[in-house]
């Protein structure tokens, strides 16, 4: 008979507990009933600040948190547990429901800490913990904006959570004040030196920082609030947010008579069991062996320990690494190990570069041989290598690791790391586990390691380390394009660009070997086309092209082609739609509506192609480049033109973008979308670049993909005007075209890009490489020189002559092509079985 | 023009003129339709050598090999099928990606500037 686990609370840790238990409980010994307080299932609270980017709660959703397919889990939302009867082994919920349990897990999390300040309950005073809190803050900001333009706000708390709240307010267009009682920002993570630099960097971002002072009182002042600080400063603000840390929610346990930790939290042993053996506590409400953890990673590990214990296995909480690396408003902050040099006799090595905005400190043992911890502010590039080194012998002079010549990740070789060093801290993957994957599982690429170990699949910051581990294991990661070129596609692009070579023969003669192949020829053809070398079938270029590009149509299984004229943004007049129907009828073509909002005409023979184009071009159509590694479509919803919910003219923008980037040859196909509001009907986030309208402007997402490996696009910029948006897309697309591998979509490119999204943003938004002018100029040249490729063939007798099936019988169609009728349309019928069947 | 050893064997071919040499693009191919609806793909390598293969891709059954990309695989002159990308040795018709597969190779010769294909 199955037993019942009741889980009180449904946050991230509660979800992990249920997930872990259900995954490992293969015999179904437990039934689970979860009571959550919030109205929605567990969501990614760590990413709460990003809610401001989209205001879409779905973006924070955790996969599987509704347990829709699991009939052994009951999820009850909006009805928290309010009492425990340990004797009867049952809980009572707010609505009065009584549920008995065999085991109970407390996962009630934390509450925001609000200091006992006069006026803390006034309207306009908020806390920062839930989606609802942010919705309330947004309403207050909008209301204040109506009253007086740009509202003013203050955040009480200058730690991690306080700065997160300040970032959220900043993302809403405010310039908040931050009040921190300690003498520096982020007092738990950084030391005075790091705090001083952080203070400066944050101040530069239009945030006013008040440290070393408390908030002594808040008073109503008409529509506004007046906050008085301990140092006498008075702040006139429209709203005030308390985000000064959290306190464990241990009330349920306290009232039930469970033992508590000295600093609060329900006390547990190392198996997460409380003083009542049938009751567990996990996450921020627990005090494991007397210590409360306010981070999600230790919470997850408690959840796994509790799940294992419930299933009768031996598991114990190993303690947790509270190292942190984060980017706050674009400022890197990292803290690891004994950051405050609390160890007896420990020594500090500091490198403080006020000019370049970088502060680095290492804490080492008294004999300077062992790394104990450190603080990095402004540039945390060394974090990935230093954190795993904590507790190990240093590979060299401490100063050499962080000094000006240390050169980031290369300062310490990966060889120096011990096997138990955690390379991926998100998924707790050690160097040993990765090496094992390389040696025993035969992983020979970063992608293979990701699949095998999950390392690098979350934040991605360790991806460069994975490559270095491969090299250290002697796995050569060849970037050679093919047997004819040792260079990668990106390197060839730069060679062609720098040398102004215009033909394949010259390129292979000077920089490659042999005659070329079906890999390098189309890749070089694409590079030549991107750099503007006339018509893609001009001169020697024709024989470089894959058959689709060579015939400017898509080859189908029987050797016929399909034709897709461009229909920008999917907007088409009735007259043109009729032309498509007429052409299809006249040439006996099968027609189908594509996923990219246009019409595909199938079954054209080689000699029919120019005749079909003639009819289409005369009616005002042009090539849709469905055959090319090039921009395909910019899908759109109808936006403000028709839709009751539209925020902006999505069709207008989509037409503009499609006409701007049409014909641009790229490493792989490019798809785009524009949605007129957050409902996202154009599915823009599944595209290489997608734009979503908000009331504040356009949000740009990049690196999305549908298909076999779907990827939701990442937010690159938000609230942009059209001009700024187009400028950023120009740069993004050109940067991708120049640096990606052959047949690498933007999704894979972004995943492999060193530094990931942050690096991309620094390059194409902040112009950190100083190449944005050049990227924009290259795009401007493409736009200025665009010409329809179909028209180019129709106007050139030499090119036209190639559109024939047989050189000795022009006009005679291929006799092996035959059609039959299916659902009233022609479909191919193959004459005879291929010689090599079923391969 | 090179006549390859394989193609000299027998010597009882019927030769059909199909086009002028310059109609076959360098590092490219064209298709010719011969008696009995036989389709031959004629290729010219970057070095100017001419070769003839069946135009029918054995993996798909489509008559498209003349539209493949011409190059080399480890120094062997080859065409890649435009359908599933297998490479075929231009001299022998041997599939370089699948040992058990071979397609018909046809001898090719040039008279004046006319390309002739030989069919037995």
Automatic annotation (TrEMBL), chain A:
Residues 323-390 form the NADH-rubredoxin oxidoreductase C-terminal domain. Residues 5-290 form the FAD/NAD(P)-binding domain. It holds the Pfam family NIR_SIR. It is an enzyme of class 1 (oxidoreductase). It comes from the Bacteria. Residues 556-617 form the Nitrite/Sulfite reductase ferredoxin-like domain. Residues 423-471 form the BFD-like [2Fe-2S]-binding domain. Its cofactor is [2Fe-2S] cluster; siroheme; FAD; [4Fe-4S] cluster. Keywords: 2Fe-2S, 4Fe-4S, FAD, Flavoprotein, Heme, Iron, Iron-sulfur, Metal-binding, Nitrate assimilation, Oxidoreductase, Thioether bond. InterPro entries: BFD-like_2Fe2S-bd_dom (IPR007419), BFD-like_2Fe2S-bd_dom_sf (IPR041854), FAD/NAD-bd_sf (IPR036188), FAD/NAD-binding_dom (IPR023753), FAD/NAD-linked_Rdtase_dimer_sf (IPR016156), NasD-like (IPR052034), NiRdtase/SiRdtase_haem-b_fer (IPR005117), Nit/Sulf_reduc_fer-like_dom_sf (IPR036136). Its EC number is 1.8.7.1. Pathway: Nitrogen metabolism; nitrate reduction (assimilation). Belongs to the nitrite and sulfite reductase 4Fe-4S domain family. This is assimilatory sulfite reductase (ferredoxin). It comes from Prauserella halophila. The lineage of its organism: Bacteria, Bacillati, Actinomycetota, Actinomycetes, Pseudonocardiales. The gene is nirB.
From TrEMBL, chain B:
Residues 15-117 form the Rieske domain. Keywords: 2Fe-2S, Iron, Iron-sulfur, Metal-binding, Nitrate assimilation, Oxidoreductase. InterPro entries: NirD (IPR017881), Rieske-like_NirD (IPR012748), Rieske_2Fe-2S (IPR017941), Rieske_2Fe-2S_sf (IPR036922). It comes from Prauserella halophila. The keyword Oxidoreductase applies. This is Nitrite reductase small subunit NirD. Transmembrane segments: none annotated. The keyword Iron applies. SUPFAM superfamilies: ISP domain (SSF50022). Pfam families: Rieske_2.
């Amino acid at each position: 008979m199955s037993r019942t686990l009741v889980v009180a609370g449904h946050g991230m840790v509660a979800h992990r507990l249920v997930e872990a238990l259900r995954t490992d409980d293969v015999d179904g010994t437990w039934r689970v009933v979860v009571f959550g307080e919030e109205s929605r299932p567990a969501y990614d609270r760590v990413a709460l600040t990003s809610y401001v980017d989209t205001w879409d709660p779905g973006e924070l959703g955790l996969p599987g948190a509704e347990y829709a397919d699991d009939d052994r889990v009951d999820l009850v939302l909006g009805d928290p547990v309010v009492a425990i009867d340990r004797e009867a082994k049952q809980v009572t919920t707010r609505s009065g429901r009584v549920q008995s349990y065999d085991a109970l897990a407390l996962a009630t999390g934390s509450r925001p800490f609000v200091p006992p300040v006069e006026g803390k309950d006034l309207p306009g005073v908020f806390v920062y913990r839930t989606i609802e809190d942010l919705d309330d803050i947004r309403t207050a900001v909008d209301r204040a904006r109506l009253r007086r333009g740009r509202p003013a706000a203050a955040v009480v708390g200058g730690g991690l959570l306080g700065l997160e709240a300040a970032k959220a307010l900043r993302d809403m267009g405010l310039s908040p004040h931050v009040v921190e009682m300690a003498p520096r920002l982020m007092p738990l993570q950084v030391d005075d030196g790091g705090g001083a630099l952080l203070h400066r960097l944050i101040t530069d971002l239009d945030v006013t920082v008040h440290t070393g002072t408390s908030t002594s009182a808040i008073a109503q002042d008409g529509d506004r609030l007046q906050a008085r600080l301990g140092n006498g400063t008075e702040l006139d603000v429209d709203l005030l947010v308390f985000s000064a840390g959290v306190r464990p929610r241990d009330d349920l346990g306290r009232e039930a008579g469970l033992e508590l930790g000295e600093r609060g939290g329900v006390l547990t042993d190392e198996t997460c069991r409380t003083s009542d053996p049938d009751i567990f506590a996990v996450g921020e409400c627990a005090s494991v062996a007397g210590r409360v953890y306010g981070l999600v990673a230790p919470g997850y590990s408690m959840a796994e320990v509790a799940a294992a214990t419930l299933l009768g296995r031996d598991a114990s909480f190993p303690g947790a690494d509270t190292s942190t690396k984060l980017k706050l408003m674009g400022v890197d902050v990292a803290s690891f190990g004994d950051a405050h040099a609390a160890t007896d006799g420990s020594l500090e090595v500091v490198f403080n570069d006020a000019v370049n905005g970088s502060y680095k400190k290492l804490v080492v043992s008294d004999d300077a041989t062992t790394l104990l911890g450190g603080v990095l502010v402004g540039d945390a590039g060394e974090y990935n290598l230093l954190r795993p080194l904590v507790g190990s012998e240093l590979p060299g002079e401490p100063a050499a690791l962080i000094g000006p010549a240390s050169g980031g990740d290369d300062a310490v070789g990966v060889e120096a790391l011990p096997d138990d060093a955690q390379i991926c801290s998100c998924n707790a993957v050690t160097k040993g586990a990765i090496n094992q994957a390389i040696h025993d599982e035969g992983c020979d690429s970063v992608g293979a390691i990701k699949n095998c170990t999950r390392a690098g699949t979350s934040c991605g910051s360790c991806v460069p380390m994975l490559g270095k581990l491969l090299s250290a294991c002697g796995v050569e990661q060849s970037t050679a394009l093919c047997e004819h070129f040792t260079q990668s596609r990106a390197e060839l692009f730069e060679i062609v660009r720098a040398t102004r070579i215009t033909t394949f023969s010259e390129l292979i003669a000077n920089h490659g070997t042999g005659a070329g192949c079906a890999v390098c020829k189309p890749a070089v053809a694409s590079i030549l086309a991107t750099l503007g070398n006339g018509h893609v079938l001009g001169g020697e270029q024709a024989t470089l092209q894959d058959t689709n590009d060579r015939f400017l149509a898509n080859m189908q299984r029987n050797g016929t082609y399909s034709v897709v004229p461009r229909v920008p943004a999917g907007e088409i007049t009735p007259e043109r739609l009729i032309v498509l129907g007429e052409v299809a009828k006249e040439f006996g073509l099968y027609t189908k509506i594509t996923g990219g909002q246009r019409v595909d005409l199938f079954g054209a023979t080689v000699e029919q192609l120019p005749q079909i184009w003639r009819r289409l071009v005369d009616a005002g159509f042009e090539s849709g480049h469905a055959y090319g590694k090039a921009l395909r479509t910019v899908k759109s919803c109808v936006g403000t033109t028709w839709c009751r919910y539209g925020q902006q003219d999505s069709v207008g923008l989509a037409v503009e973008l499609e006409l701007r980037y049409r014909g641009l040859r790229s490493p792989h196909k490019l798809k785009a979308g524009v949605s007129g509001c957050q409902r996202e009907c154009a599915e823009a986030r599944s595209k290489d670049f997608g734009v979503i309208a908000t009331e504040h402007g356009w949000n740009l997402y990049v690196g999305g993909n549908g298909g076999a490996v779907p990827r939701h696009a990442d937010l690159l910029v938000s609230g942009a005007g059209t001009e700024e948006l187009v400028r950023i897309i120009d740069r993004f697309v050109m940067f991708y075209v120049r640096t990606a591998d052959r047949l690498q979509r933007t999704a894979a490119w972004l995943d492999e890009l060193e530094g990931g999204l942050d690096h991309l943003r620094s390059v194409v938004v902040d112009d950190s490489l100083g190449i944005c002018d050049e990227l924009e100029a290259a795009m401007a040249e493409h736009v200025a020189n665009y010409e329809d490729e179909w028209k180019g063939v129709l106007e050139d007798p030499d090119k036209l002559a190639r559109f024939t099936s047989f050189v000795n019988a022009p006009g005679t169609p291929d006799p092996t092509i035959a059609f039959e009728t299916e659902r009233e349309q022609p479909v191919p019928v193959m004459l005879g079985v291929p010689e090599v069947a079923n391969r | 023009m090179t006549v390859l050893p394989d193609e000299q064997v027998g010597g009882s071919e019927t030769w059909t003129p199909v086009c002028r040499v310059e109609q076959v693009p360098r590092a490219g191919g064209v298709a010719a339709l011969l008696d009995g609806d036989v389709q031959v793909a004629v290729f010219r390598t970057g070095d100017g050598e001419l070769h003839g293969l069946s135009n029918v891709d054995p993996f798909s059954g489509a008559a498209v090999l003349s539209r493949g990309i011409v190059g080399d695989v480890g120094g062997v002159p080859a065409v890649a099928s435009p359908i599933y990308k297998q490479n075929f040795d231009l001299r022998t018709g041997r599939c370089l990606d699948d040992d058990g597969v071979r397609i018909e190779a046809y001898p090719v010769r040039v008279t004046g500037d006319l390309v002739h294909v030989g069919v037995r």
